[in-house]
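User: structure tokens for this one?
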Amino acid sequence: MKKIILLLTLLSVTLFAEVKNTYMTKELLNSGIPIVDVRTPGEWRETGLLKGAIPIMFFNERGGYNINAFLKELNAKVDTSKPFAIICHTGSRTSMIAPWMSEELHYNVINIQGGMEYATKGLKLKTYPYLK
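Assistant:
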């Protein structure tokens, strides 16, 4: 039930939120805007992270989530009063999360479309190992 309510909320917010959607570019990567990688630890280990990316899992491997834990870690690592970007593997998770963050939390969030798949294959950006 909790998942259904979140998904309905995310869907309704998606219809009305104003989110900047952009593909990863070298300019964005080098802009100094924080990039939050919301994938799972397994994905971080498998493919690595973009230079300077901040790994903070939103959905776990089974699709579960803990919004309070995510927001606590996000607010500890990112100045959410300033623009920041979020990235996942293909952009599907961030396309749900970004509108919610924008509309409900009033964050100035940038959704990176195409995710890591586009960034590493389309742009051939280098990734760095996830160390933890």
